[in-house]
Every structure is written in structure tokens, then in C-alpha cells.
């Protein structure tokens, strides 16, 4: 998030008037013509840079200023700060500068880098960057004394092939592959020359090159890699580092050729006879080594792409070996972790392109996994290892079950509070969701652990989990997953308490109490043996221990003081989103048994939710929406769960705690409790539902002088009336009872408590609905046609065919009611 001052500056930049922008551009144009670069010039350019970058649209600048900025950008004598600002402004401005900048590319490495960034940003097609591409390839072959141009060229080339992968011809790909091999495998083994002070009375002198060392201080005995340590580096060593940083994207883009995997394996086997002797030459100077390698018999056996693949494979194996060394500096330890991740990813790409490498790579990967397994500091490195096992374990006939058991059971449970690991872990699951469902048995069972990432990092991972959730739904754990989603805020609170409990030991009561009285009480409960079972369940690592717990209400009471925690509140906000995804997915796969289980969960959990502000209301709205969808999908649910539905609807107390959900339950009763949907809808069953709802309507609409204003909406009253009328049309003996009930609606609506609470429109709606229903019920057959149309009433014929359409029927009803208008109640 930006600070208030930064937000203010961005707002000013976005709202600048055209006249003011033109004046500011004119002022910059004059400042750039002065010989001396002042601080005012830099400040003005910085402001213009903010203006053009504050919106997503390119800003049109005066053409003379654009030409001047291009001149500054291409001038190697200009201060770099001005070049950087000019480059940034031109990238976000209009008219484009691609053609003019490509007309005369500078040989200076720094200037060329800034120009290239503008060209790549503004290029509209591959043809626009062709001059830049030719210049880059030429610079890679050049042997300038400073050598800097090549170092800048590789990152630019990497970005270019990412956007335009077809820009290089096969011959050019081969040329670059040869260069990458030389830089990657045959960099010099001495540190770069460094200048040192010769003392007060003598000038600086050049130190003799010293050998490179490993991260543990031992002198390097093998070829150079990014994990070799020195005070300074030669140009070919820098190129080695740049090559390693781009080799993965290069292999993914161009590592395909006409050589078959079988041919490749034979060539590599022949090459292996010579590799040890040839690699010993890596300590020779890089230029000499490149010539030697170019004439070696092993290299002649492999085409350039295959040779690059082989050298990249050796390089990654060397890095994995180096990562086992004890680094002297913490920064080198972090570099080792990054190199493991990148090396294993590159090996995965190589083995994917040529399966013959799988058998050579697996011993190294298995040894690496054995070394890192159990070390939480290397958890992020386990993800590419798991990816390697997932992609290649079947080819090598290697059992990967233990790898994924470790991955899904320990990482989320112990490092849920690591945001980068959480993001990468979820991305790994998203990338491989279909394969994980088929081949990893404990993937779907591990959703309690995976949801810990979301509970702790809810705002940052909601989009990923919306996409991931369908892959976690399995028939045997779908109901448990629903309960877990509903308990997600409880999980966030429990994880918070777990973290605090680990930080503050029980004897350290002062530090404990500093967390606040409410948190301290929750921490106390968290450590009580009597509550241990509740927290063990909510923090369980995998599914299968039961759909939910009997003492869930007790858990909500224990965690009541955590309900206002920002983390818990944020987590509660994502639950309705996940519920929609869950129901939309599960209703496409569910059978009759699961649909019944889902309805039971809705009825049960509508009253059993963690008491967080607005959380209950939002969840009940989701329940209401999907209750209708479930009953529409399988109307016999009403009869299957008649006992539970009657239990819920018979209690007026449920109206005040969950009115929206209650209203929808009443609606689905009237809509689907019909013999046309289920032959079990006997007169007795319809009568039982009728009597239940009749009693509720009578109780909430009693008119008493001392009665308080109703706390329910008029919508509930109209839905209850309509549902009773629908049921009466299906058992016509009930019509007199519902007519009597409806006749009492006018006194209710005109009573003083109701008039003070409802608007005039609301009371008129109740009275009008009662009158309409009474009049319809005077003609039972017509009432049944209007209130309970056939199941095919949503089909096109029902609305288009004049002989069977609903509008035609309504005209007939209107005529009948008009003739009986004299009998309308007043």
C-alpha cells in the first residue's frame, strides 16, 4: 500500500491538465538544451516520468521533446541518470520511438541497454525488433576490449525471445547455443584483476589474480559456477552467471531438434568416454578453452543444441554438489538455496526434452532429497524436487509416494506462515492439479493442511484457491471439505493461537498477558487438556477423522474473543466466495446420497457458525442461493429430509436468527412439495407441513396491544402466505383453513405496531397478496394452475404456444376474478 503522500502525488499526476503538461514539457525542453545538468533538470524529468507512468495509457508528448529525449538517450556522454529517466519516459509515451532509435544503434553497452529497453517496450511486431536482434547477435560475436556489450546483450536477448520466440533462425540459434556452451562450461578459474592502493606515496597497482574458492573457503578444483566465490570476476565469469540465469528459458524455447531421443542417448554415451579429460581443460584461459572445446572429438559428435543440453546438465549437477558445502556467509547460504531450485528446474526441463537423461539425473535428485528432507529451511527447494518426481518417476520406475507424503503433511502444517512458500506451494498444486488427482493418493486428503495457507494468507491467495478448490473435492471427503470451509475462520484463529503459544511459554506470564486480556484467555484455553481435542481436530493435517465435531459450539465459544482479530475477519470474508465455488462444482458431480448430505449440512450449519460480524449473514445468503439449486436439481430432497425441515421451520426463533435462510426453506417447501415431483407427497405429509407453517404464521401475526413491532421483513409474511396457499391447492380440504388465516392479514397489517415498523408500500403488499390468494382459492382448479404450474413451465412452449401459455391462462383468471370482484373482502 502507498503512503498518503505518495497517493496524493499519484493522484495529482493522473489529474494534470493538458495545458499544465504542455508547459512542463516546454520547460524540460529548454532545460535539456543547457550545457550544465542541474538538479532542476533531474527533478523535472522525474515529475514527467511520474505523470506518464501514473496511468496505463501512453501519454502523448510534444514531438520536439520526444526527439530531444531520444538524443539524450543515445548520447553516451550524457549522465546515466538522465539516460535512465529518458528511457523510462519514452517507454510510456507517444508517439513511439522504435524506428528512430533502431536507425543508429550505439556501440556503447550502457547506451545500447537503455535504447533496447525502449524498443522492446514499444515494439508492435517482430519486424520492429529485427534491427535490435541483429545488433545483439553481432555483439555476442564481438571481442571488444571492454567486453561489456555482451554482458548487457544476454538479458536483452532473453527478454526478446520470450516475447518473439520465432525471431531467431535455426542457424542463429545454433550460433548462440555454441556461445552459451563456452560461457557456461569454460569460464576462467582465476579471480578478476582488481586495483589496490599502493600507499600514500605510490599509485595504484594491479594485484595478481587469485584462485576462486567454494562457499566454504576451499579453493575451487572444478569448473566455474555461480557458487564460486571471488573478490572480483572476469568478463567470461560474468557471462557464465548471465548464461545460467537465462538457460532455462532458452531450453524451453529452443531445445527441440531433429535428433531423436535414441540417437541422443548413443551420442551422449560416446561423449561420456571423453568428458572427464576434456573437462580438466576448464582451468585453462577461457579463450583458449573455447578453441580447444571447439575441436574436441566429443563436441563434434553432438549438434549445438544437444551440446548445450549436456553442458547445462553437468553444470546443474555441479551446483547441486556445491550446495552441500557449509557456506561461511549467510548470503551464500541463501544463494545455495536459489541455485538448488533453479538447477533442479533446469534438470526437469532437460529430462522432459530427452528422457535418456532421467536415469542419469535421478541418483543426484534422490541424494539431494535425502539431504534436504526434514530441513524446514529448504522447504521451497522441495517443490522443484517434487515436480521432478511427478514428471519422471514413472519413467525411472521410482516410488514417489514418500516424497509427496512429506510435502503435503509437513510443509503446510509447519510453515503456513511463510508467504512465499505458500504462494509457490499453491502454484505447484495449480500447475499439476490434474496429475496430482490421478497419481498422488494423499493430495485430496491433505486439504486441511492446504487450507492453512489460505487461513493465514487469505487476502493474497483467494484467487488461487478459487481455481484450486474444485480439484480438492472428492466423493468421500466432500462433506468434510464443506465443514472445513465453514470453519476456516476458526482455523485462522487456532493457527494464530498456535503461533503465539510457541512464542510465549506458559511460565512467561507477563509476556503472555501483554497480548491482551482476550487473547490471553484464548491462549489459556488453547493449553488446557480439556480443549486439546478440539484444537487437534481443527488443526488436523489430513482428512478422514470425521466430517465435523460434536462440540463445535464449544469451540466457537472458546474462540469468541478472537472474532475481531484482523486475520480472522479477513479469512471470514473469503468463505462465501469459496462456498459458491464449492457448491457450483459439487452439484455437477453429486449423486442422490451426497445431495441429501449437503442439504443436512445446510440445515445444521445455518445455526452453527463462528460469530463474526456479518459472517453469519453472508454465509446464510450463500446457503439460501444453493438451497434452491439443490432442490431444483433433486426435488425429492424435501421429502427425504422432511423431519429436519419441519424441525427448522416449526421454530419461530429461527426467523429472528436466520430470516433469509428460513424464508428460502419455506419457499422450496411450497415449490417442490408436490406429487408432480415426488409420489411420496401424500395428503398426510402435505398437511403436516401446512400445519407447521400455519402455526408459525399465526404466532408471528397475532395482534396484541402490548406487542412489539415485528423484527422480520414483510417478505417473510408474503412467502408464508403463498406457500400455505400452494399447499392448500394440493390438498383442497385445507382451503378453508388457509382462507381464514389469510383473512386475518388485513388487521395485522393495519395494527399500530406493524404500521410503525413497515412502510405504507409494505403493508399494502401484504394486504394485496392476501386478497389475491383468497380470490384464487375460491376457484381451486384455477388456483392450482396459477400457484403450482407443471414442472415444464419453464420450457419455451409454455410461453410461446397461445393454447398452453401462462399469459393466456392469466387472462382467463383475470376474467373470472373480475366477475367475482363483488365478493372481495374489504
From TrEMBL:
Q: Where is the AP-5 complex subunit zeta-1 N-terminal TPR domain?
A: 1-294
Q: Which residues form a coiled coil?
A: none
GO annotations of cellular component type: AP-5 adaptor complex
Boundaries of every AP-5 complex subunit zeta-1 ARM repeats domain copy? 335-452
- For the AP-5 complex subunit zeta-1 C-terminal TPR domain, which residue ranges apply? 464-816
Q: What is this protein called?
A: AP-5 complex subunit zeta-1-like isoform X1
Q: What organism does this protein naturally occur in? A: Carassius auratus (Goldfish)
> Signal peptide location in the record?
none
One Pfam family cited in the UniProt record for this chain: SPG48
